[in-house]
Amino acid sequence: MNPVLKNILAVIAGLVLGSIANMAVLMASNNIIPLPAGADNSTPEALKATIHLFEPKHFIFPFLAHAIGTFVGAYVCARIASHKMLLAMFIGLFFLAGGIYMVTILPSPIWFTIVDLAGAYLPVAYFAGKIASSNNHENP
To answer: What is the mean pLDDT of residues 31-55?
Structure first.
């Protein structure tokens, strides 16, 4: 397969599968840590109006969703792509841009914003790229 096409498909696969992983974790989160009484996450506006009710435990799954989604996307992309680390980091940057957008539209505690933006995207994408690269050497 043409390497450029292969890399484009790798990025698309990483973005799609990473987004699916992100949403799956978020959907499961309310079954594990229920929303606080009176909180509503059915729309961004409702979430914005009730996020002040959230305790630190309610931010665990959003962080995990961001980190797991980024990991899955970067790993899948790096496993397929010929420019493994470069494109894994591209996936991390893409998800980081989404994270930055989210903190601009939804208020969150400053500690969560810092932990999320600094820890859930680029370091995780780097880690996924390293793992995918080392696995390819063992199993070409």
So the answer is: 90
